[in-house]
Structures are given as structure tokens and as C-alpha cells.
């Protein structure tokens, strides 16, 4: 069974066309690490936990879900034993295993409609703090980038509790990297982590105008930096409005008759990360302006920010048909059953038809959940639509 399940996971993403501007993540290096590990090891069982859960979600087979739980339970004591040995040569394998268990934790949270506790991400941060002096190579750098991305992800959701940042932040060495859209966005997003931490500290105590002024200024600067990013992406990264939207896609869910098409899901997800970051910044600016209300007579800036929030939310909603198409249930591993919107200059690729039914909903879930934050104050009709799309994803993966 393992020999069938694990390749299904790896093949779902490993052979997708790669954009030269997007770096590999830890899942791209996992197949090589998995092939070199011993059966029954902590990396082996952690991989099986994620693989079996993923394929269970795709196929709706409950026995696979139960098997994933067993592998997860087996992996935990094995990782604890490895940590006690304190062997630096095992550092990468241990950190990837912890990241896999963190991924499993997120899967279970989606299934149970709960916020993930991020216990394993916190464990990864603690391990990095302990082993920071370890010599870095390409593999270790990729793993550190993955941890940083997970930390940034917790910052983007307004309802997500933040996790402590590592003692050295950011983890990735973006200054030494060649400029790329993903590196520039990662740099800005890592600044957002620090800013949100400062904002939360301010909001936990009596309001201070001087502190609110400082945070408002930093949020404005970072928002300008993010906006400039959107003008520096390659032409093929730009979204294109769909000109053909099949009726079945409309029936499944489309907000205000709008859909944008992208060259790949990774590029679309990167745009949604950019939008998520801007939503957090708008919320920070709003809260500061409410403290500094005398500086905004007539609430013109507040109104402008609220309009920006709604525009960004609409942009994220416009990616739902691209990711989900007409899908409304598990595909049972059969391709060609889902239709997608497209434009003449941005047709639906065979790769998208094959991979989007498997991982499109997974890409979309976090962004939709973040839009449901009460702090955004989105229109009631949009909140209802978002809830419907969240429920749709649960049906796709868990037949709920």
C-alpha cells in the first residue's frame, strides 16, 4: 500500500512545470530525503502520515485516514527519541519531519473546522534556536525557508495566533539571493511579522498616540513596498480576466461574476499571499487611525482603507473559480471531470486540469478562512458566499 500512496503524493506536485522565479520548497526535496531514509524511521512515518491523509482526502477512503492517524502517532515518539540523541547530522531530517507533522496538523484542523494549534511549528522554531550555528547548505536553506513561510502564514490570518519568531529573524538570507518576485515578497512579509508583533503589543495596553503614529508610518511604508512588488512581477505573472466561464463553474461559486486566470497555481497563490499581507496592513492602519482620530477629520483615510480592504477581498474571491473550477466533490482520482474558466490569452493547461482537482482547494482554504475575520467587516452577502465556499472545500476533501 505504501508503494502506491507515497508516489501519488509526490507525483501530484513533483513534475509540475516550474516557474524560474519560484524557489523549491521542502516538499520538493522530500522525495530524495525519503528515498534515503530507513523504513520505520521518523522521517518515513511522518511522510506516510501526510501521504495517507492526502490520498484519503482525494479518494474519500476512510481506511486511509485511519492509517494516517496511526503513522502520525508512530512518528511522534520517534522524533522525540531522535531529539534526545542530539545528533547534528540528523538535523535536516528531524526538521523536515516536524514540518510534515505540522502539515498533518493543518490537514486535521481543516477537517475539523478548527484553527491549527501550531505546536509542531513552535517545535521547529525551538530546534532552530538551539541549532542555529549549524553550517548551512542548499538543503538546509530550503528547509529554513519553509519554516519562515509557515511563520509568515500565521501572521497573515488576523484570527491566527502568532507564533514566536526565531532568535534570528528572518531565517532566509534574501539579501544574498538574486532579485526575484518571490524573494522580494518574502522580504516584505518577514517585515510584516515584526510589525504585527509590535501592533499586538500596542493593542494589549492603553493606547499611546506616539506608538500608534510610529506603527501607522511603518505600515504605510510596508504597504507601499508591497504595492511596488505588484509592478515588478514578470508579465506572465499578471492575472488575466476570464472571458469564458462555463455555467457549471458559475453554479459552483463565483463572486460578482468575476474570475481571474493565472499561469499556474503557484503564481496565483503568491498573489493571494501578497493580498493577505496587504489585508493585515490595512487592518493595522485602521486600528491606528482610530486611536489617532484627530488626524483624520471626516474619516476620509478610514473610508479609503475600508474600500481597499473590499477591493483586495474581491481580488481573492476572483481566484476561487481558477483554483476550484466546477469541482464540488472528491474527484476519486479521475481526471477530466472538472471544468475551469479561461481567457483566449490564458487557456486551461493540461497540468492545471490534472493538479487543480487535487490541490486547488488546499491552496484556497487558508485565504478564504482569513477573509472571514470580523476585523475586515466585509459585506454580509460576501461573508455568506465565503462560508459556502469553505463548506464546499470540506465536501471536496472530506465529504462533509
Automatic annotation (TrEMBL):
It comes from the Eukaryota. Pfam families: Fungal_trans_2. This is Uncharacterized protein. It comes from Penicillium daleae. The lineage of its organism: Eukaryota, Fungi, Dikarya, Ascomycota, Pezizomycotina.
